[in-house]
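Limitations

Structures in this collection are predictions, not experimental determinations, and the ligand pose is part of the prediction. Treat each record accordingly. The example that follows, with fe (ii) ion as the small molecule, is included so readers can see exactly what is and is not provided: the inputs are given verbatim, and the output is the predicted complex.
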Amino acid sequence: MARSKRRSVLGFANRRQFFGRAGGAALALTPVALLPACGGGGGDDEPAPTPPGSGPFQHGVASGDPLPDRVILWTRVTPASGSAGSVAVTCVVATDTALANVVATLSLTADAARDYTVKVDATGLAPATTYYYRFGAAGASSPIGRTRTLASTTSSLRMAAVSCSNFAAGYFNAYARIAERADLDLVVHLGDYIYEFGTDQGDVRAVEPSFETVTLADYRLRHAQYKRDPDLQEMHRQHPVIAIWDDHDIASNANATGSQNHTEGIEGTWTDRVAAALQAFYEWLPVRVVDAADPRKNYRSFAIGNLVELLMLEERVVARSPQLPGNATLPDTFRQRDAFLDPSREMLGSVQQDWVAGRLRTSTAKWKFLAQGVMFAQLKLEAQTIAEGGGLFANADQWDGYQPARDRMYQVLKGDASHAAVGNVVVISGDAHSSWAADLTQDPSNSNVAAGGYDPNTGAGSRAVEFVGTSVTSPMILDTHGLAESLLLSVNPQFKYINLSRRGYLLIDANTARVVGEWWFVDTVASRGAGQSFATAFQVVDGAQHLVPAAQTSARPNPPPLAPA
Ligand SMILES: [Fe+2]
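Predicted complex:
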């Protein structure tokens, strides 16, 4: 079994190794369910919610994939010991925290086929409306959840973005802080919601099962453990989540045909493992099925009025070509030559690429958000213009390892003889376990804008912008002196901000004039704690296509009340 085939964000066995190697060469870096119970409102005869860790609702409630008229509601019913068969579940949806003004009462069933998870698309709802809901089963009631439909017309969006929540690596304080923000419309999860590793993934909390997840039973156990976390539960209880998977939701550095952390045969077939991981993902997350015939196809779009079209991309198992090994002297680093220039290598695949291009070109939204897994911006250890060869790159798992595919995306942004250029695109990424703000340009080391280059002082030559959010818990190098950040900034002028050491989340605030990205960091992941701090903010102004520093945004006044405990 593959227990120690870990591979990092930056293409190295771990981040310390990356910086250690980089320090020796290119940059000289210094490291731094049973009967219905809940068919009505909140009357006095309602059973009290059972305490965490007991009763049928040990895994909380969740909502997701909101649309203007519907939202997915989720829970999991733990059957009584020794029981089997199906469990009757009810769900009541209301517009008030007391569940008095009921708008829907749903009758559902939980059974072993879906690991006793329950997921329903609550329809007939009103846009831009906050709802409260509660499940009932086996004479018990779930905690009250809170969700919100998307606006059909709006001039503002305020959301959080998260990624890389490794249970073993720490406590989900970032989720808890997001749960407290009553003014959010939604939360985007960019992947690595779970990690597949066994005992070699972190030393803060032990994982279940204690070994690497390979089978459906394994992935279900891992999801169940995550869903018992109180901070994760609270984020889901208070906000709708729009989630995509990244590699660790399946296996490290996953691609369409394999994974660096999968041994074909010994660990079964990749096809079976992907199917198992995705079945558990669909069971345990409030995600709407896009194509029942093809579970891998989960890329989808959310129109938030005419303000934002939120495109959620799939970059792992639909079409991604296998990651290439390094081709430069410094281990795992690479230059854009040979196989790296093979135009047949894919990140999205032609079908998804055409879908993205079509949405970008035809969307009437002010802003187009590409929410996706891996960093889109170039990350170099040595700067060279394209004409000089492009330089030395660090992470073949990111878009850097798929330059022709990235160029195809740039072609959409730039336009061609048949299509106008596309502006106001904001890429929102995770996976990096670190924080980055970037202008997106094809030739960042070339200062000649007229020749397709980029001016870091004015942002000229930038085609779009990117906000890369740090991890919820997953580790990165401790760079207390900021030296690595400074050196990376000097080599990569397209980055306006880099932080390599802190855990937390992104806050994104959009209106018709600008999109602001704020980086928020938690004080620690070594224990549960309420400390957090605002780090910095950058914004892109309508029509500008590049980032500038921004002031911290203000919370919305009089947000809908949080769901009561
Ligand atoms: Fe991750």
